[in-house]
Amino acid sequence: MPVNGSELRLLGRWTSDAGLAGAEISAVDKESKRLFVTNGAKNAIDIVDISNPKKVKLVKSVDFTALGSSGIQSVAAKNGIVVVASAGASKTAPGILFIMDVNGKMVKGLPAGLTVGALPDSVTISKDGKYAVSANEGEPKDYCLVNGALPETSDPKGSISIVDLEATPPTVKTVDFTSFAQRKNAIIYAGGRIFGPGASVEQDLEPEYAAISADSTTAYVTLQENNAIATVDLATATITNVLGLGYKNHNLYNTGLDLSDRDNAINIVPRNVQGMYRLQCILNN
Q1: I want to staple 177 with a disulfide (CB 3.0 to 4.6 A). Which of 23, 54, 202, 247 is the partner?
Q2: Is the pLDDT of residue 152 over 70?
Q3: pTM attached to this predicted model
Q4: What is the DSSP letter of 89?
């Protein structure tokens, strides 16, 4: 059914043969009419030909295991360039950005990719094609209490990596939140959340997803666990702000929610509860 003059129609379909983990994140390169799909089951990127939507077909799968990847996280594509975000040897080890062409061939001079912060959870490319930005979550190995005590754990710093795709070969700068260590109380006061037991501000802030402004100058990065958004100046590779998102008042008209899963009923009503937004995905179309 058309909505505001727009209508969605199914043109074609492609199904991975790898089960539920076979397709999570996808990116389209318009020029080549190819779709790039993360395949968690095979630790690969599936390259799919969508030039004929009625006959969508797999071109090839690119396996990254031999290149040091322990898990493909995200993919972005533009102007014939494909950027693949991957965990390194473990989720707390430095991550990797692989840069390849639409045929799955690694960019000359970067056969092993670029080293970035731990666990690059998402990657995006600017509208002008100059920059790629990855949100490196820096998720801790373990924050669960064992017999009432916090075990020794590894908690890398959350970080953001900015890649200059116009350089030959592409280069990367990775920035973290060390400069915000003295702004913990201000971030919390503005509605952010910094809470990890024993964690510093730079360890606790965990980038989740990135989007880039239409003029290709600024990245906006969600910090999901922290209920905040970071802004990044791409030209200088500088984090300029961390903005707490505040709270949603569920006690107002049309903001109700159902707080129980035990009453076997739907009961959505206003409640005297404040909720956090905790954004995951962010896009700029």
Answers
A1: 202
A2: no
A3: 0.91
A4: S
